[in-house]
Amino acid sequence: MGKRGIYVETVIDADVEQVWAATQDPRQHVRWDVRFSEIVPEPPDADGAEHFTYVRRSPVHDVHGTGVSIGERQRDDGTRTSALRFATDDRLSPIRAGRGYWRYVPTGDGRTRFITGYDYDGGWGPLDLVVRPLLGWATAWSFDRLRIWLEGGAEPEAWPLTCVLQPWRRDRPRASRTLRAPAGGDR
Fold first, then answer.
1. What's the angle, vertex CA 179, arms to CA 80 and CA 92, rounded to 5?
2. Torsion (CA) 144, 34, 38, 17 in degrees, nearest 10
3. pLDDT digit string (tens) for 67-95?
4. What's the rounded Cα separation, in Å, for the pair 25 and 28?
5. What is the rounded distance in angstroms from the CA atom of residue 89 to the CA atom of residue 107?
6. Which are the contacts of 66, defined by CB distance < 8 A and separation ≥ 6?
7. What CA–CA distance (Å, rounded) separates 167 from 182?
8. The pTM is what?
């Protein structure tokens, strides 16, 4: 895996169930997460594992990959976690294989701390020094896009990635509104 995993955290003024629904449903997930154009669930395998395929479309090339949900846990305090593995054989993808998690932590006042951590094997060698921060930024920007939507703001589609070219718009998603390392700097 990479030398430094990607971490993003935000607080959303919505309960855990609302955040869970918007992030675990593939149709909703692709609406707010700029890293994916399509996520298609596959039938569970004999062990009951949930598999999916994904696509990230671009004008130059569409990257196709696969993933599997490797676990889900709910604690007595309402915290939920889901973990997954993902991979692609696409030589043009900047990511080869990786794993990550989403954690949903109720704050006690009806809000949710939504956290992700993931790491991957890079596919572009030295260019990963550029790709990794860009993927971190895309994740953070997407988390803020999700937050705006769930807090009653614009639908995610109102904020295409091209809106980053509108720095004067204060109501647009911003990666800078997210935490990019755990409090205290520990991973």
1. 85
2. -10
3. 999 888 889 999 999 999 999 999 999 99
4. 5
5. 40
6. 51, 52, 53, 54, 86, 87, 88
7. 27
8. 0.91
